[in-house]
Amino acid sequence: MILANQLQQFGLDNKEAEVYLATLEIGHASVQTIAQKAGIHRVTTYDIIEKLILKGLINVVNKGRKRYFVAMEPEKFLDSLRYKEQLFIDLMPELDALQNKGANKPKVLYFEGRKNIWNAYLDRIRHKANLKENLVYGSSEKLLTTFPEEYKKFTNERISLGVKAKIIVEKSKSGILEARRATEELREVKFLPEGKTFKSHTIIYGNRVMTISWDSMILVIIEDQANADNQRLVWEMLWNSLK
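Request: output the structure for the sequence above.
Response:
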């Protein structure tokens, strides 16, 4: 038998869990029926049901002038928890950056796997509200073929935020396409010499440097102003040496 305290691990207090379980077991039910099943006073049960409606765990069914209540199916409850988990994952780069923010030391954020890498990749335009430029060198071909649909959405968001991109890429089909769309997509492009290519991808933005290894699908963000300044200098030297 499922105990109410087991559901408390998922954001419910004891009485909310009791009411949810009672409603789930009964099906369509009135407040009075749910209160009796849960062993909780009717007025208190009504207040709890209102809270559970706001949480999306109970729905209202109107039959004539009467209101009945039905619990969210367990599968949908699980979907809701997964959705919240994804929202939290999206916040991870910023939350990690805030950790020990007062300490004067570099911060290193590590991500592995396709899904986690893409969530972290968005940090290059979301890190700071006043961020206006990304300096990039890397394989355009590997980025666009690995994340084709995601990259389109990312580019639209970058444009809407007014973040410009200056990129150094290989002269590939993808690189040429990015150059062709440069003006409309707030981008400047320079090509590596013919036959040269990058195996990884590096983005310098604000006080952060992001590096992606395409072979191992690992993304690392280093937050350190001195390191970012050094990488920016190296990038500028390379940029100025190219036509």
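The CA atoms of residues 23 and 71 lie 6 Å apart.
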